[in-house]
Amino acid sequence: MALRSLSLLVLVAVALRESCLGTSSHSMKYFSFSISEPSQGLPHYVSVGYVDGQVFVHYNSNSRRVQPQISWIEKVGKEDPQYWDRNTQRERSNEETFRGDLEILRLRYNQSEGLHTWQWMYGCELQADGSKGGFHQYGYDGRTFLTFDKERLTWVAPQPQAQITQRKWDAIPGKNQRHKSYLEEICIEWLEKHLSYGKETLLRTDPPEVTMSSKTEVEDGMETHVCRVDGFYPREIDASWTRDGEVWLQDTLRGSVAPNANGTYHRWLSIQIDPKDRSRYRCHVEHDGLEEPLDMALEEPKSNVGIIIGVVAGLVLLGVIAVGIWFFKRRQDDYKKAATSEEGSNSSSQGKTQTA
Prior knowledge:
Blueprint: H1 2-20, E1 26-35, E2 45-51, E3 54-60, E4 67-68, H2 74-79, H3 83-108, E5 117-126, E6 132-140, E7 143-149, E8 154-156, H4 160-170, H5 175-197, H6 199-202, E9 209-216, E10 223-232, E11 238-243, E12 246-247, E13 252-254, E14 258-259, E15 265-273, E16 281-286, E17 294-297, H7 304-348
Antiparallel strand pairs: 1-2, 1-5, 2-3, 3-4, 5-6, 6-7, 7-8, 9-10, 10-15, 11-12, 11-16, 13-15, 14-15, 16-17
């Protein structure tokens, strides 16, 4: 069970990361997760809130309190004293509901007792052009269970076991319209409020630092170049390889945009080329923090000869140092022996009458 719990934590981390990294200009998203058989002190229910990928509130069944996770959210409690108690009561209610849902679903799927999970994700997005988006979905044991279609005002059930819940929820008068209103109005209002509270960090623009590295492949003489883009915020960035000014995808790899510990982001992209065509390629980067796009030229790989010479010189230096230490230690030992014999003769003459 411990191994399964550890694996589950990895899956939760991936789900949390994917849920908070959207392509919108600004977003507010929540992820709630319940597990039927937690072990080793793990909570059976967790709820996390994100604004633009930053965790701002957290609740779990061990603490049983909604707690702030970033400094700017403290401003909400000052303007709305009931904010923390109100949201804590909501999460406690969700915790109990999730516990009952897990048992209902286990029976519906005709499963034995054991490890089962129930997830809930929802949130809204405010695009750079002013358009708004939102989503609302549930998952059971890692698969999509229900997804809300806010345009058609209905729930979509990809599995037969979910159709029972779909019909039940669709039949509640006004329920789906309230979901739509929340995603398009209330959620957006709270997102804008949070952006105003955390504008020093959420609305800043940190330009990327672009660095290049390269190497020559021994087997075929081809060159591999890596373009690293680091320390930028917000996360939206356009980084690509170009050949003769046009985007080039052949023989390229790219990593996804990933967060740094300080709230900024990084990514990398690599390309393999024929050395004779090196001058035709550029690493092209566009970001809100840049006054104009960057086009970084490829550098000639450093010669391995210099590295070998450096290593050899280092080994020679280490040898010289080792010999020096040995010589110094030898001289020190000789000195100690001499000093010991002198002390012996002096001590033997202490009782004699001085002649002067």
